[in-house]
Model the fold of this input.
Amino acid sequence: MNPKQDAGCPDQQELSPASLVRTEAAALHALADRLDGPMAAPFHRAVDLILNCGSCNGRVIVTGMGKSGIIAQKIAATLSSTGSPALFLHPAEAVHGDLGVLMPGDVVIALSASGETEEILRLLATLKRKGDALISFCCNLQSTLATASDVALDCGVEREACGLNLAPTASTTAMLALGDALAVAVSLRKGFKAEDFAELHPGGKLGKRLARVADLMHAGDDIPTVSPSTPMTDVIYEMSSKKLGMTTVQENGRLLGVISDGDLRRLLEHEGGAALTKSAGEAMHPAPRTIASSELAARALALLEERKITSLVVVDSAGKVEGVLHLHDLWGIELI
Done:
């Protein structure tokens, strides 16, 4: 007996890491071909079911056991983060009381490669009684789960990526990709926008990139402000004390112009000490670049980089100053 074989187990193939990845990639290519072909219609029916449940304040309940359960949790998270409220339901816990989470109008997505997972099959009678729609991800469309479903989506693979062709690998990769495709398709049909995404992702670097200007700007007493008649010595003091490298020039709250460190430096280079005899109105840069407080931070960063400036004045529709946004406030944001 080959020492690398266990009695009663299939032959374990010697597979390189690259070949394992190619096996999973082949499973994804096959899934994509099915989505372009025979699975296109059932996939769109699944999208319709989720959209219809959302219009009735229903949720998506995603369930699965073992490795499929882990994929189910990720799919639920992706649906929720793209505008479709979703929950993960552990099928073993479901029959011990957690079925109470199901509400009329919900859609259930059940993941089972075999389609014969006992814990999931035990839920079918309750699902049918409640009338909740059932979408299944199965590798066997003749299985009990698939035939009981309103929509069955084929996650079948030629083989698993593991050497024994046993461990869920390629099949769970296909389930994950199918779940992502379903979540994104639903969000596109809903017209889910970057602004909506920002509301659901307030934390970390992603949240900062999607934050509103109003969330990051300096407002109130932190806004450097002078009037057109303010002498340059006082302008310099205001710029220094507010530490934003600039000041707004305002009259009755309306923006007239700005004076930046660069403006001040160029004025001193050209006029020397005489620059200090000028007023803010004489030294300011009129018609500066502005932005609305409702704009996304990523848009503000793009404007700063395009104009090669370090600050934007935030104004309302009437031209009243609401704040100042500095490049430092946007550190860590990436543009895509």
Notes: The CA atoms of residues 310 and 327 lie 5 Å apart. The mean pLDDT is 88. The longest strand covers residues 254-260.
